[in-house]
Amino acid sequence: MAIKLENVGIAVRDIEAAIAFFTDLGLKVVGRDTVSGEWTDTAVGLDGNHAKIAMLETPDGHGQLELFEYIHPEAIESEPTRPNDIGMHRVAFSVDDIDEALEIAAKHGCYPLRGVGTYADLYKLTYLRGPSGIIVMLAEELKKGS
């Protein structure tokens, strides 16, 4: 059986704020819609399912996020996940310049959980709290000999 990752879906409280954050980081919106009806009730498993959705894609075309803002049923606020919580953990992006990416994130009120670390002289990386409490990992590959 062939399998491929289609996208990562994230429920957000404010789809416009989430779109602004991810597009400022470099993703592009490739589709938007409002969905409802029997097919969504069945597929998602929620009666009366009605949501605004947006599909975003990385510039290389290999990664996609699908953002959802629920209109009905009402979205349920929960505590933001922590890095060691079981379940959906984070979304990670490679960036050319982590400092620039952090400046962009800060414009959206999003900051590292602690700071930027260096892994084995290979990557500079950080976890930050993105829109709607999403944990976002940013990683910059360190170039050897440059």
Automatic annotation (TrEMBL):
It comes from Arthrobacter globiformis. InterPro entries: Glyas_Bleomycin-R_OHBP_Dase, Glyas_Fos-R_dOase_dom, MMCE/EMCE_epimerase, VOC_core. Keywords: Metal-binding. GO terms for biological process: L-methylmalonyl-CoA metabolic process. Residues 4-141 form the VOC domain. It comes from the Bacteria. This is VOC family protein. CDD domains: VOC_like. GO terms for molecular function: metal ion binding; methylmalonyl-CoA epimerase activity. Pfam families: Glyoxalase. The keyword RNA-binding does not apply.
